[in-house]
Amino acid sequence: MLLLGSPAIGSTATPGVNTIVQRWTEANRRDFEAMPHYRYFERIRDDDGTKTYEVTMLFGRPYKRLVKEDGKALPDDERRHQEDAFDEARRERAAESPDQRRERIAEYLKSREDAHRILEAMPLAFEYALRSTRHVNSRTVYILSAKPRPGYDAPSAKAEVLKGMKGEFWIDTATYQLVHGWARVAHPVTIEGFLATVQPGTEFEVDQRPVDDGIWLPTHFAIHSRSSIVFLFHHHTAEDRTYFNYRKISAS
Q: Domain for residue 7, yes or no?
């Protein structure tokens, strides 16, 4: 958990909140575009236990290979099964026709575009206020609070949830990258295209750290969601993801 120190002394050089958000958005865009150029490990903890995967790009789309369950190495037979499945996926993808590969990659790019639209919508969806400048571990950050912007018109159904959220974001003063952020649904938000209502109590939290070449990537993401489908069936999920050991994929 990150610990806040005492607020730093204010400076006349501190940029305005709109400038901070603009620069944060630009840095976030660079980081998002860089993510597919790295392989890494992802540990997912949910109600079913903990699983750790090695994630790498395989012919234009990520492939996740299970390497641990509940913190323990896989039994030999399961490890061989995972290795065989990876080899089979590599052979299948290598043998694809150009049309098959385009279709498979297009599906992956569509999911990334959905996520990108939400990231790009955040500066417009919220009203930000600069609360303070603080020391967080070895860095200095701007503490931005965020609340829904009245009259915001979401660009997609999935971005509708931003209308009901409020949160706080810690932005590095040197690079304008996100250090830590959280947001919580403060009032119900109906997503008509999905016949669902996101309920208060839904929240997410994210942490990022520098990797290399001025790129910051996630180290932790947690989400607790509460929703109702057609106002009848309630769905609760909790998931915690940790990302580590980022390695840049060789251009060759």
A: no
